[in-house]
């Protein structure tokens, strides 16, 4: 698999900022139905999953059967409760970042009930809820893996779909009824967190939590979150709960109300220069979940000296036009960030549970996956779409 194909399961969304507010009434399931399910047996003879697969570029998802990977001593098997839809799923359906290996079952914000565990699995038991993000394997030998940075494994990270397990089996994602894989990438969901809230944290949430933690955001920090969408709505909640002052930036006037509800101290409509100028030279960090314009001078004006610009978004055109003098004189740091390592995921789940951080989700039955994907393509979720079995 080439590096572009590998990019298809990065934990980064590309929600368009020009969101149209939806008046569509979406089906809602009760929270209780997502928590309660009893299991009386821990084994299954069924070696197949039933998933919504894409067979061609941009094609519809069709319910189909595929083999689960071989069960081993380190394996965990889940009955999938729900799975969030990430922009990456759609890029992959479309072969947007390189050729996809069809047929493909996307979905990498998976929460399910544990139905089977191998003998080496100690942190999960039958009936627990567990989550899986966009990575489901790493080499476990390189310096980054030893340093608990498996997300930047130097060797052979395994992605949750459109990839292969070490044994050669194909990986299939969460738009399905079952998931089976490595215990080290299946995380216990805290009791206080609903399955839907947990699902989108496994990719969209941790992709913003991890860099805020890594770059020391806390009391005394002032954060600009660029893009109030799938990632941004997590970014502002994390930063606020970490004690920072938070300002959201977007191009949609109506999002000002949501910014307030999400706890933001201010909202800047990017196309209004006066609103932007009020915050010049004040930010310790910019979290770019969406590169809203390509004007680096403007971003550098926003940052305090020694400020850090954190890139979560992957724009389709290369960055250019960086003013080196400004960057040097203000001692500005530009940092990339890539999903989250297993310990980041565990920490983000417990931080969300303890701090009341929620996924603003539009829920769809799994059987309406095609409708849900259309909804996401149209930029309508506020701010995440989650498929529920
Ligand atoms: Zn993702
Ligand atoms: Zn590694």
TrEMBL record:
GO terms for molecular function: oxidoreductase activity, acting on the CH-OH group of donors, NAD or NADP as acceptor; zinc ion binding. The keyword Electron transport does not apply. InterPro entries: ADH-like_C, ADH-like_N, ADH_Zn_CS, CAD-like, D-isomer_DH_CS1, GroES-like_sf, NAD(P)-bd_dom_sf. The keyword Nucleus does not apply. Gene3D superfamilies: Medium-chain alcohol dehydrogenases, catalytic domain, NAD(P)-binding Rossmann-like Domain. It holds the Pfam family ADH_N. Residues 230-353 form the Alcohol dehydrogenase-like C-terminal domain. Residues 72-190 form the Alcohol dehydrogenase-like N-terminal domain. Belongs to the zinc-containing alcohol dehydrogenase family. This is Enoyl reductase (ER) domain-containing protein. It comes from Thamnidium elegans.
């Amino acid at each position: 698999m080439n590096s572009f194909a590998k990019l298809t399961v990065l934990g980064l969304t590309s929600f368009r900022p020009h969101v149209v507010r939806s008046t569509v009434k979406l089906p809602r399931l009760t929270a209780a139905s997502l928590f309660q399910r009893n299991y009386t047996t821990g084994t299954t003879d069924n070696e197949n999953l039933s998933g919504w697969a894409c067979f061609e570029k941009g094609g519809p998802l069709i319910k189909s059967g595929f083999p689960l990977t071989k069960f081993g001593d380190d394996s965990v098997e889940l009955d999938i409760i729900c799975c969030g839809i990430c922009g990456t799923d759609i890029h992959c359906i479309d072969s947007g970042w390189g050729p996809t290996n069809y047929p493909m079952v996307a979905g990498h914000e998976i929460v399910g009930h544990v139905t089977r565990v191998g003998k080496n699995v100690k942190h999960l038991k039958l009936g627990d809820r567990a989550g899986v993000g966009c990575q489901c394997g790493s080499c476990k030998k390189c310096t980054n893996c030893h340093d608990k940075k498996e997300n930047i494994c130097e060797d052979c990270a395994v992605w949750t779909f459109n990839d292969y397990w070490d044994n050669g089996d194909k990986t299939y994602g969460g738009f399905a009824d079952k998931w089976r894989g490595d215990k080290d990438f299946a995380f216990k969901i805290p009791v206080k967190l609903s399955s839907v809230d947990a699902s989108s944290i496994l990719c969209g949430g941790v992709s913003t939590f991890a860099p805020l933690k890594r770059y020391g955001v806390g009391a005394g920090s002032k954060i600009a979150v660029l893009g109030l969408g799938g990632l941004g709505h997590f970014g502002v909640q994390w930063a606020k709960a970490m004690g920072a002052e938070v300002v959201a930036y977007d191009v949609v006037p109506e999002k000002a109300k949501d910014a307030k509800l999400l706890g933001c101290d201010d909202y800047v409509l990017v196309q209004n220069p006066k609103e932007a100028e009020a915050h010049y030279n004040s930010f310790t960090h910019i979290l770019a979940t969406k590169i809203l314009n390509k004007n680096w001078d403007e971003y550098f004006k926003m940052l305090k000296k020694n400020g850090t610009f954190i890139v979560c978004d992957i724009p389709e055109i290369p960055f250019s036009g960086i003013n080196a003098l400004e960057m040097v004189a203000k001692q500005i740091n530009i940092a990339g960030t890539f999903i989250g390592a297993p310990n980041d995921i565990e920490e983000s789940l417990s931080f969300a549970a303890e701090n009341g951080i929620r996924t603003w989700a539009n829920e769809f039955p799994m059987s309406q996956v095609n409708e849900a994907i259309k909804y996401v393509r149209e930029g309508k979720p506020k701010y995440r779409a989650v498929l529920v079995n």
